[in-house]
Amino acid sequence: EERKPIRVLGLFDGIGTGLLVLKELGIEVELYVASEIDPDSVKVSRVQHLEIIHVGAIEYITEKEVKAWGPFDLVMGGSPCNDLSIVNPARKGIYDGTGKLFFEFFRILSYAKPGPENQRPFFWLYENVVSMRAADKQIM
Question: What residues are annotated to the active site?
Answer without folding.
Answer: 81
